């Protein structure tokens, strides 16, 4: 699977975990040069506290376009150390 935004592959892996129709990529498969930490956090009742990254590619920024659970609840342990995308990021094979 690939995560693509603004013409660049942000992440690529054959080992994604699908939860609620979102592909969670292993953290090591995500290209760190496109990520910047965000101050945004949200809470999911069964996954826990989510943190976000913004993506920057070729001078364009997609704010809070990636999220992850640094310490997911036990029901979501399979997404620990994984990153998912939204906000116009295309997920393709």
TrEMBL record:
Pfam families, alphabetized: NTP_transf_9
Signal sequence bounds: none
Ranges of residues in domain DUF427: 1-87
Name recorded for this polypeptide: DUF427 domain-containing protein
Originating species: Spirosoma telluris
């Amino acid at each position: 699977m690939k995560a693509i935004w603004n013409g660049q592959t942000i992440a690529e892996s054959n080992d994604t975990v699908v939860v609620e129709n979102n592909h969670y990529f292993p953290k090591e498969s995500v290209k760190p040069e496109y990520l910047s930490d965000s101050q945004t956090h949200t809470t999911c009742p069964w996954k826990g506290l989510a943190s976000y990254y913004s993506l920057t590619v070729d001078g364009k920024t997609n704010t809070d376009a990636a999220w992850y659970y640094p310490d997911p609840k036990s029901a979501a342990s399979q997404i620990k150390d994984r990153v998912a995308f939204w906000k116009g990021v295309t997920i393709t094979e």
